[in-house]
Structure formats: C-alpha cells, structure tokens
Amino acid sequence: MGSQGGFGQSKEFLDLVKSIGEARSKAEEDRIVLTEIETLKRRIAEPDTTRRKMKEYIIRLLYIEMLGHDASFGYIHAVKMSHCDSLILKRTGYLAVTLFLNEDHDLIILIVNTIQKDLKSDNYLVVCAALNAVCRLINEETIPAVLPQVVELLEHPKEAVRKKAVMALHRFYQRSSSSVSHLVSNFRKRLCDSDPGVMGATLCPLFDLITIDVNSYKDLVVSFVSILKQVAERRLPKSYDYHQMPAPFIQIKLLKILCLLGNGDKQSSEHMYTVVGDIMRKCDLTSNIGNAILYESICCVSSIHPNPMLIDAAADAISKFLKSDSHNLKYMGIDALGRLIKISPETAEQHQLAVIDCLEDPDDTLKRKTFELLYKMTKSTNVEVIVDRMIDYMISINDTHYKTETASRCVELAEQFAPSNNWFIQTMNKVFEHAGDLVNSKVAHNLMRLIAEGFGKDDDTADSQLRSSAVESYVRIIGEPKLPSAFLQVICWVLGEYGTVDGNYTASYIAGKLCDVAEAHSSDDTVKAYAVTALMKIYAFEIAAGRKLDMLPECQSLIEELSASHSTDLQQRAYELQAVIGLEAQAVENIMPVDASCEDIEIDESLSFLDSYVQESFEKGAQPYIPESERYGAVNMSNFRNQDQHDASTHALRFEAYELPKPTMAGRSPTVSSSTELVPLVPEPQPTYPREIYQTPSVPSVSDTGSSEYKLRLDGVQKKWGRPNYSTPAPSNTNSDSHKTANGETQRDGASNVKSRARDASYDSRRSPQVEISPEKQKLAASLFGGMSQSKNKQSGGGHKASKTTNRAAEKTHMVKEVTTPVQPTQDLLDMGEPTIASSIPSVDPFKQLEGLLDITQDASAQSSGSVGATNAPDITSFYAE
Amino acid sequence: MGIRFILMVNKQGQTRLAQYFEYLTIDQRRALEGEIVRKCLARNEQQCSFVEHRNYKIVYRRYASLFFLVGVDNEENELAILEFIHLLVETMDRHFGNVCELDIMFHLEKAHFMLEEMVMNGCIVETSKSNILAPIQLMDKAS
C-alpha cells in the first residue's frame, strides 16, 4: 500500500508529515511545530470547517503534543469531535481526548454524557469506542455515571464488547476498588466466557484480585489449570498462535496466576505439576516466545510448593539460558536463577562461572541483574567479596537512582552480615565517601549509634577498639576534599565524642581538624553545627580532666565568626561553647559527661512533675485542658476526612436527577441529635443515607487478616510434609539439623570440610595478585559460592541431591583444570573428592538425559535466533523507501 | 499494571508515536523520552534488549530506523514484551503491507487504534491479529 497517505488527506497534511519526517534536528522540528501551532490556532477556529478537515486538524494537534508542545488550545475541538455521529470521527475524537486529557481534567465532564449515550448505541463499534474512552477518562467520581451500563455490557452478544466491558470494570477496580467490590464476581463469570479473547482479557483483573487476596480464589486453581492445559494443547483458534506457540501471552498470564495461587500451598500446587511440566517440555527453545514461556514456568516452579522433578527441569532450563550466546537469554537466566535459589540454593553453584562472566560483562543491564542475584545470595561467608564488588560498581556509575539503590544495598548487607567491626567501619566509610548524600540519613544515625554502643556485646575492650579504629580512620579521611555532608556529620560527631578518649590524639590536634572542616564547608550550616558541638565536647573533656585549656587561634576566630552568624542555631552553639569554656571543672563535668550518648534518658511523657502545679491552678479556677481530638471543631475535621475516603460518592457529582426532597423534619431530627453527624455535608435530600453501605470495602481487610493466619498454618504443613531442605533457607538454623539422616551426615561433613579448607585457601591466595584471569575467576567463584554450599550443608540436604551436585561440581573442576595453568591453592576449590562421574550419571532421571539432546538444539537456536532478527524484520528495506 | 508506556522513536530521537498508560505532563514526557532514547541508542546489537531506567524497565527492539520501546514495571516478563513488540509490528505489517515509518506517520490514528485493541489498562488483552484489525477494517469500509 502506498505510504503517501490514503484518500482524504490534504496536501497540507502530507507536507507537514513530510517536513517533520525530514527534519534533521530537534531545533528544526521545533520550528516546524511552532509554525504549525500558529496555523492551526487560526484555522481551527474558522466557522465553516468541514468535519473531515477537522479530523485532520485534530491529528495535527496530536502531532504537536507528541513532539512535546502544548496543544491545549485545541482540546475543546477534540471533545466536540467525540460527539460526532460518524464512527471514524467519533473514534478519532475519543482517541485525541484520551491522549490529551488526564482523568482529572475539567473538560472530562463534557464527555461523560457522550460516553453514556454511546454505551447505549446499537452499533457495537461505537460501544467499543466509548468503552475505550471509559478505560482512560473515567475517574473515581464519574464511575457511578457509567457503571450500570458497563455492567450490562458484560452480557453483550458481541465478544469484542464483553472484552472491553471487562477491562472497563477492571479499570474501575484499579481506581476505586470499593466502588465495584460487589461486582467482582463478574470476573469469575467471564472467565468461563465462550470467547477466548474475553477469557484472556479477564485474566488481567483476576491477576490483580488474586495478588491482593489469594485465598478467596483457591477454588479457581482447577479451572486455571484446565484452561492452561487446553491452551497448551492448541484448543484455541489458530489466530491466537504466535510463532507456532499456542496463545503464548495467555499462557504466560495463566502461569503468573498459578504462581500466586500455588505459593506456599501444597494442595493447590499438586494440581499444577503436570501441566507446568508439560509446558516446559513443549516450549520451542529456538524462539524468543518459547523461552519467554519457559522463563515464566521457572518463575512458577520457584514460587509454588517445590517439586523435585520440576526443579531439576527448571535448573536445566536455566543452564541453557546461561550458556546461550544471547544476552537476553543470559539476563533471563540470571533472573530465573535468583528465583530458583530461594528453594534450591545448590543450583547457583553449578553456574558460578557463568554468573561471574555476566558480572564482568560490559553490558550494564546484565551486570546490574547479576548484582541483584548476588544480593539475594549474600551470606556471612561471602559478604566481603560481594560488598566489595558492589562498592566498586557503585563508584563506577553516575546514575543517581542506581547509585542510591546500590549504596543502600551495601549498607543493608554490611549491617546484616558484617564479619568484623573494622570491616564494617571501612565499608561504611567507602559507601559514605562515594554516595554519602544519597543514602538515607537514618544510615548515618545507625552508624553513630553503632560506634557508640558497639555490637551489643558486653565487651568493653572490643567497643573501645571499634571507637579507636573509627577515630583513626576518620582522622585520616577528614582532610579529603568533597566529602559528602552526611559523612562529615558522622565524622564530627565521632571525633567530638571519642577523638581524645584513648589518648592517641591531643585535643588541639582534633580541634584543629574540626576547625578545618568548619572552614572548608562554610556554606553547610549542619556540618558547621556538628563541628562546633564537637569542639565543645573536646574542650569540655579537657577541662573536666583538669588539663589546661589552650585554645587554638583558628578556633577562637571560628567561634567569633559564628557568634555573629545569620543562623541562630550556629550562634547559640557558639555562645554555649564560650559559656562552657568559662566554667570550672566540676560544673563542666556535670554538663558534658564523657560518653553520655549511651546513657538512657528517661522521658516523663505524662509530665507528672507538673501535677501539683496543675492541681493548684484548678483550685484557682482554671479550665481543664481538652485534648485536640475531643474538641468540637476537630471532630468535624477528622470526621470529614474519614468520610471523604469511605463515601466519596455521597459528595460526588451525581449524574442522575435528584429525588424530590422528603419531609425535612423526619430526616433531620436524628442528625441534629448526634453531634458527630455532619449535617451540612450530607446531601440534603437524603439525610439518613445509610453510611453502613460504604463500610463494605472494609470486608476484604478482615479476610486479609484471616488469610495471614491461614498462611501460618500452611507453613506448618509445609515443614511437616515437604523435603526439609526446601524449607526457607535459614543458614544458621540449628533446628533443621535434627532432620539429618546418619547417611547424609557423614557425606556432608566430609564435603564441608573440604569446602571450608578450599575457602581458606582462596582467601589466602586472593591477597597475592595473580596474572592469570581464569584462576582469578575461580577464586571469585569460590569466595562467592563457597558460602552457598556451606549453608546448604547446614541445611540437612537430601543425600541424593548432595551427591549429584558434587558430581557436577567435580565435572566442572575437571573442565576448568584443563584450561587453566595449575595454581596450587585453587585446585581443590570445587573438588569435593568424589571422582565417580561416570558411574553416577547414567542413573540420573530422564530430565538429565534430555539435557544432552537439548544442548544440541540450543546451539542451533542460538544461531538461528541471531538470524531471526534479520528475517523477522519484514520491512528493513522498505523503511524510508519512497 | 504491567505496561506503562509504548513509544516509537526513530534513530534521530524523534518521537513517532507515544502512548502512556499513566499520566505525565508534556515536559515529563519530553524529558523521559529524551533520556530513554539516549540510553537505548548508546547500546549495541549484542547487548540485552532491556534497559533499566528509574523505576521502569525499558524493553526495546529496532526495526530499520525505528525503535519500539515499551516501558514496563518490575514484574513483567521482558522476553514476552519483546515478542509483543514484534506482534505489534506483524499486525501493522498485515494492515499496511510492509509497514514503514511513513505509514505510521501518515496513519497515526490507525496505529493508535491498533494499540487500543491490544493493550488496555496497561495489560495485553488481545493478541489475535484478526481480532485486532477487525474494527479498523470495518471502519475503513464504512468511511
């Protein structure tokens, strides 16, 4: 078909589109658009514009907004166009309105009436156009205006209408779940619709509903499973096929739903095993869409109650993803691995080298995903390596959003798994140094508290060592330029509290440093305030200790400068400092005791010390204090707010005619009697409007609490029946040790010994720089994943599983050994000392055998997927071919 | 809500179609489009077709000079979205016959109509090409 526009497009329009298309720069494009705005402003207001012409103008307005300019002068014409009788004009009008206006725009009110009319139209295409508009334009207030008609349309004979009506209801649910809470059963009904399109659309609202409240939909598990089975067996019309896969997008949505329903529910999960297994086997691995379904299946397998067969299949699929040349598949593989390790931690070990490759890949997306995986598998054994890597990455990126995220992850991991105080302080220093202004201010306070209180053990020497090492590192860092404010605050506070405590530094040395900070950051009042207060502490401790005070000249001038500061806070601190210095030792010691930050200050919340004063005042005739919440005015205010949320529709615009006013006396008497009733806000015609109706939305929350109880019970069931190593990974869980079988125990102990030795070796060798790349990678692998296997060992794994992974790991070492030059310490990293590969592999399950077969196809797929991009782009040559 | 926006942008960074499923002001859209396009243009063929941007994940695919970009939230299956883009292109192809950038520019409203059939409330609701195109063909006949 000609790309030169169809019939009915004027030369003017063609020229505009061409000139925009040929614009070589943004500036040129802007110039074209600005001229166009001027032209349109003139033309659009002309009285005798034909409707076809107007449609073109509206599309030109779309261009103006799309290219980033304001076209609000034409909005009203788009609204008018939606009133047209002609279908194409009406739909264009609606389209423009949905693109121009957000749901709270003033003009929406002009269109609600048109929508109401169109929803009743005989032409189903008009109804569809109106339902499209409903999904974009109707807000909470206008829902009641169209709700009855939308509900009626759920039964419309045309499937296209039913589908859009379902989505309109979905939209109402998104906007205001309470307004349609009595209608959600309609979604269940439409799931059984005879048309697959309606059924497919219904999965969207059901997914949302199930996300919020799983337990009310457990009865649908069987239905979803049977639908999925039918879809996978190609029972749906051919037109839903995509690249030879039957209705893949519906399959994916169903798998997502099963994922929610089967989570922590053994009974529901058992219904799913067969169909999920079938789907995983049927996936066409040569196409993206096949892999998309496979990925979704892995997500499902990782979320539902564990099934060993499916987990093995998922692990195999992941290894295919990771081995693929396609970065997209690697990315999906890393993500899937992050999900699967939650129930099967040993999977990660098989892929350690692949993971490290992804970590070092120049592709930032892949790298970031891999860090997410590492974050998920951090243990106390590998925290140092992982956090070090994360910090390096954090330093290397510029994007504030991800810098913040990475920094807070580092802090979180460090707080959770820190192996030593010293490491913790060093790590926090690095994080603060490079992202101090991005991390939550709470982190700074946590750090100060940690330094003050230690790690909560009653070990005073350890605590004072921690403080000393903090002081020492801060004294070193403090001179560096461009330290973030939050970090400087921590430094000042720590130096003030503990700078001179251990006697390593003299008061004047610390004071000098603090003055330097205040001077270097003269524009940052917070840092200056911290510095001055720290100075005060330092000098106070000196006076209290009976030493002669010897104030530095720069300190003197700083204080003088601050006493005249514009900031009253700084001024006050400066004056306080001067006052404290003038006092004698005894007084100073009382004002500023050493290490006072750890003292618990008791707060008398009821202000009981004022009781006698209050009593006295009462006796003199004073009025008692009325709390704010009990005062009359406040009642109204807070009630108003509550009401506003619950029954917004009472005050909302109404689109039906008002009823005739009832006799006022009858209605009004109850409202007057109770002072909490809001007389002026309740619409006059129906003063006794039953508020209870609007309480219904609270029902879901009730069942919610019920559901959490239910969940708890399920957990118990899971522990009892499930294989012990699938219970949620808790590395230090001593309880699980009791599940150990004697057989498994010996095996595991042997393995863990080797493993821990290997880890030690790797740490040692890490310090000596190596030139070879692959041993380094291995070392990294060992330090990252060594912890994994150890935690696995703690978790009483099943005997078969353990031996299988050993074999795989052993296999891997063999492979690796061939490639690398023999480096002594790395050699036994992964070797668990069971070189019985040949004998054990044949006994493995059919999935394992399948792996070999599929590997071949996988290679083929990698090749063909490369060419898919080329062949699938049907239009490369025709683009710009005029 | 899965899909947050769908963009078509050419390699000069000029927007050819934009559909947002959550409200952003014109300035916010302009800024967002600029940042995303810069990020995607900087990437090569071997790298992932996914980019994280603020709290969106962008899935993109290039057809000759035109980039199709879909912004999704975190829980979406990226590979499926990548194929959804291709489904969209196949659908446009069926309607326009060897679709090209200019087809979309001259028939902007039709491209939007197709999207309206395929995606509602940020969810993929229709993937059958004949169902997607039926109303558009009927409209063409009527006018």
TrEMBL record, chain A:
Keyword Membrane on entry: yes
Coiled-coil region(s) at which residues? none
Report the locations given in the UniProt record.
Endomembrane system
Locations of Polar residues compositional bias?
695-708, 725-736, 860-870
Answer yes or no on keyword Protein transport.
yes
One GO CC term on file = endomembrane system
Q: Which Pfam families match?
A: Adaptin_N
Keywords of the record, alphabetical order, are: Membrane, Protein transport, Transport
Write down the PANTHER family for this protein, in alphabetical order: ADAPTIN, ALPHA/GAMMA/EPSILON
What is this protein identified as? Answer: Clathrin/coatomer adaptor adaptin-like N-terminal domain-containing protein
Which species does the entry assign this protein to?
Escallonia herrerae
TrEMBL record, chain B:
In terms of InterPro entries, this protein maps to: AP_complex_ssu (IPR016635), AP_mu_sigma_su (IPR022775), Longin-like_dom_sf (IPR011012)
Q: Which residues form a coiled coil?
A: none
Please name the SUPFAM superfamilies in this protein's record.
SNARE-like
Annotated GO CC locations: cytoplasm; endomembrane system
An annotated GO BP: intracellular protein transport
**Record's keyword terms, sorted:** Membrane, Protein transport, Transport
Which residue ranges does the record assign to the AP complex mu/sigma subunit domain?
Answer: 3-142
State its location(s): Endomembrane system
Per the record, the major location class is membrane
Q: Which CDD domains match?
A: AP4_sigma
* Record bears the keyword 4Fe-4S: no
Does the keyword field hold Ligase?
A: no
Going by the entry's taxonomy, the superkingdom of the source organism is recorded as Eukaryota
Q: Which family does it belong to?
A: Belongs to the adaptor complexes small subunit family.
Query: What's the protein called, per UniProt?
Result: AP complex subunit sigma
Organism, scientific name:
Escallonia rubra
